[in-house]
Amino acid sequence: MDNSNQWWKDGVIYQIYPCSFADSNGDGVGDLQGIITHLDYLEELGVDAIWLSPVYPSPMVDFGYDVSDYCGIDPLFGSLDDFDILIREAHSRKIRVIMDLVLNHSSDQHPWFLESRSSSDNPYSDWYIWRDGKPGGKRPNNWSSWFGGWAWEYDEGRGQYYYHMFGKLQPELNWRNPQLREAMMEIFRFWMDRCVDGFRLDVFNQYFKDARFRDNPQKLGLRKFDRQTHIYDTDQPEMKGAVEEIRQVTDAYPERYVVGESFLVGPEGAAKYMGDGKLHAAFNFELLNCPWDAGRMQAALQRWENALGEDAWPTLVLNNHDNKRSSSRYRTGENDDRNKAAAVLLLTARGTPYLYYGEEIGMRNIHVPYSQIQDPPGKRYFPLFPTRDACRSPMQWDNSPQSGFSSSAPWMTVHPDFPYRNAAAQRDDPESLYNVYRKLIALRKEHKALQEGLYMPLTFEPKTLMAYLRQTKDEMILVAINFGRKPVRLFLGSDLAGKTWNLLLSTRREKLEQPQGNAIRLLGNEALVVDLD
Ligand code: NOJ
């Protein structure tokens, strides 16, 4: 199969949280037709692919990350026919479609689990992780759940415990069972036969647990989950073989892409699953977890670079559906200067940038009082940790009621800033954050150096200044970002300062004077992208 077109390297990927993107039928929840209606917007923004958070049939206890049928579409979102239209319409605009596959666990309502829990000698009995308790009615071991509490749930019918890293209605599948594994590969084929271009694998390195079910060592921590080192319940060596098998299956189709969401591991842990014969990419959440600090950001990029093998390709992520939005993390008030500078980093560093819907207009987290929390861990850990609902509010399309998202009350509150912070207003404003994103995406498309060029950190002054070169044999692009409010000077050797400076983009000004002496001055929170001739 010809897989030489590595579109995912050069491309920009846009995550859609379907519940919150656009509601076409007025039930307050986003749907596939809603997405179809807004494909022109995504084309204009310039994204190369959309990743859909799960749209499969689901009881929605974890908003679709609890799947009850891997080969269907939940009626809430539409039908398989709608899905085929979405694929067709997206492809006609040169936008690829990436599905979110949640193969570590299913819903407890999946027919496989209903069968599995019905007896210990049916064909599906071993498709989930069942264990006897220890004498005295104790749980099989000390493993804890990321959603809170223990990871074992007792089932009266089987007289055994089943394992769940997430909610207790999300039992974990047993990847050691060959039939289960083959069923998983069929799911990939099912969607690729429907012309899906790639997959995002939910918590993929969680598929295998220790074969001997040993207790995790204990440590100090805030939540029960943090009070153990997760060496036996996740990231087991058997995962390598599964990753290779997935790659073989997807390589049998042209130009398919697989990105894994690595769980509880840093860049080094993620990197071991990436490269030829393995996943095309895995997420690095280091940037997302960095405070607004030049040195920390640059160190995060460098740690990723150090961890990656030659055949691996980085990902760049500032936002997703599990984390506080970057515009709220960077405490930007109503001003978007920091968000613009962050966009420059995301779209000019080395790797595939991922955008999360609404990031391009600087949507902020909403305030969610306890009574309105819908996210299970959000409820459990209130007020210790912010609920994930807060970053999943309806897309702010325009200033009409419900921000143009729906004709009726939406499933989650719209941010009250929507009358002035919305896509329609920002499209018309040449100075807006949206237009910075759009221009940067266009620049990436035009300049090979920004896609595949060498990444060379230049210098940084901890906390304030970050600068790097992106370079191919034909072009050299300088990126400089001032993280501080005050102007700073970037000192360059005479070699660089002596070149002709063509401003490709500044987040704060129209024109750039040629450097005076060996230095260039950046305004407060300004980011520059300059072509050096
Ligand atoms: C990771 C997903 O990103 C998150 O939203 C979900 O709750 C867990 N996996 C469980 O599927």
Biggest β-sheet: strands ordered side by side in the sheet: 9-8-7-3-2-1-11-10
Give start-end ranges of low-pLDDT stretches.
Answer: none
Name every ligand kind in the structure. 1-deoxynojirimycin
CATH class of the domain at 450-532: Mainly Beta
Helical residue percent band = 25-40%
> So how many helices?
16
> What is the strand tally?
18
End-to-end C-alpha gap: 40 Å
Shape: globular
- Residue-averaged pLDDT, rounded? 96
Strand content: 15-25%
- How would a crystallographer describe the biggest sheet? 8 strands, parallel
- How is the quaternary structure best described? single chain
Derived from helix and strand composition plus strand pairing, the structural class reads: alpha/beta
Q: Under CATH, the topology of the domain at 450-532 is which? A: Immunoglobulin-like
Whole-number radius of gyration? 24 Å
- Going by CATH, the homologous superfamily of the domain at 450-532 would be Golgi alpha-mannosidase II
What is the name of the CATH architecture of the domain at 450-532?
A: Sandwich
Describe the structure.
The protein is of the alpha/beta class and 533 residues long. The protein has a domain at 450-532: Golgi alpha-mannosidase II (Immunoglobulin-like, Sandwich). It has helices at 7-10, 32-37, 39-45, 80-92, 111-118, 178-193, 239-251, 267-271, 294-307, 326-329, 337-348, 376-380, 423-427, 433-446, 448-452, 494-497, and strands at residues 13-16, 49-52, 96-101, 130-131, 152-155, 160-163, 198-201, 257-260, 281-282, 315-317, 352-356, 454-461, 465-471, 476-482, 488-491, 501-506, 519-522, 527-532. The chain has an eight-stranded parallel β-sheet. A hairpin with a 4-residue loop joins strand 13 and strand 14 (476-482). Helix 6 (178-193) packs parallel to helix 7 and helix 11 runs parallel beside helix 14 (433-446). The longest helix is centred in the middle third of the chain and has 16 residues, at 178-193. The mean pLDDT is 96. The structure holds 1-deoxynojirimycin.
